[in-house]
């Protein structure tokens, strides 16, 4: 015990860095519960921590225990509070409905094919339904995202009141227990569901009240048009993304190439782009100020340049559409500038800890989001890495010869790509189900091109646009963009550019991130202990057992794991989404199930036996599961008892009705009540897990059939 206390005392300056980690633990504990807890448990924990802090303040163990308990309780309470501040999920009309709502945002979507026009999706707030049931009721407290018809040419912008006829859909249940939860994401984003317009939209009210043609929107559209006039094709589309935040014109094939090469982050305006812009502005401002002797001797040039960089960053984020990842990066940039102005270390772990704590207390659900996990993992790895490598880099820099500076700069860019890429690799595996093994090579070339060529030329073009002299700068920017696009396509074409990874268990990702925190937040040699949980978390997707069979939440699609393939059958409205999600979760290519009378090469799956069409038998580890993968009679055709005899489970895409009454059954009614089902066939038995068992009874888990809170008219006495 004395040895541990000695180590902690040696690391006492690092102990406050673990407070946001304790807050994150409290948030994670809340989201892992299967039933909605009462806040009294967290309040009791917080009250317990106070006397531990007070009476144990003179001892290191007491201070650490009390602080950790208090932070865990505060994180738990923050997550509970955010959940219960959100309005309930409403019941959406099940048929096409006419609705009116105010446009909150307009998203331009990529064309569905090469010869199709680009689509648009509007986010509507204050939605009212024109039905007899919804007459007189208040507007929805949540937003709706509706895709408009591709040939709808009405000019729409934020602030417009629209009227349209649409078919709506509530957020879907997870396609398999443990996969992405769209209902939870919609709950914390304030969304009620999605839909598609069945006709052209019309504007309600006078055109003079519109906000869509605001100065900012006109400016962004004008900048994008002038960029595309000089740089047609994909080069202009990417330049418009970097300078105006309009990425809709990038072809789907090029998006896939950027994803396969590990360069997808260049297409999303976020921390990298903001850092480049602010760095350029700070460099120009500081050199400009110090070039005047009178200013250099009397003014705080470093602080003024930092403030100028922040102003430039605010303008850039505003110009590119104020997307959420960019806004989060801007908040962290504000902390960096504050540290520079007050004489603190800008790139410090304490600044990162303050930013993490601020985000976790204001919106605890961000802990489960990809941008939060990737950005903080990357920044934490970069700060810790450069803390260790600062000495060798200074020695390499030497007396500052030009060639040494160049070598140091290239080395730092390579280290940045390597550290950030390795820190975020398991996060990418968990959320996107793949590994890009050549990401370091691609980023080693693309990031310097973006920082030293593309963005400086683009910012110069923005400055020259009012004078109509932007052509040379845009031409130079286009050459750099063309090189990056060529690089992405080339790397994406290499063998094994994308390696599919099975679904990562939640404990695996949490274990890796904890090990990363242990490695980065401590400064002594015992930090290396964190490598062990990082390796276990990294290997977790390849160690846990995937289900043998899955039935999707709509009951229409059945997936069977068979060797190196994923056999799928069935039809439903969401089949395309379910097939894509299950293919990512299993990391196996999709193949069709054998027809009646056929079987798989392994012999585990045989279909159409005993003259029963659409019925298959899956035999594995001494267990047998009867699968009805196709049934046009809606369960009216009874399966003979001779086929059901000896089966451990009966799964059917239709109602079971009177078939196999003596066998445990998962049919369409069970899926309607419980969500998707996953089945494991082991020597000890057949284990069945439903999404309801996995997710539990939480506020964001919708009722069976994706039903929400009914939309009822207000009572007469409530209207007065």
TrEMBL record:
The chain crosses the membrane at residues 15-33, 40-58, 262-289, 301-319, 349-368, 374-394, 406-432, 438-464, 471-492, 504-522. The keyword Protease does not apply. Residues 36-183 form the DUF4131 domain. Keywords: Cell membrane, Membrane, Transmembrane, Transmembrane helix. Pfam families: Competence, DUF4131. InterPro entries: ComEC_N (IPR004477), Competence_DNA_uptake (IPR052159), DUF4131 (IPR025405). Its main location: membrane. The keyword Cell membrane applies. It is found in: Cell membrane. It is a multi-pass membrane protein. Residues 242-525 form the ComEC/Rec2-related protein domain. PANTHER family: DNA INTERNALIZATION/COMPETENCE PROTEIN COMEC/REC2, RECOMBINATION PROTEIN 2. This is DUF4131 domain-containing protein. It comes from Acetobacter conturbans.
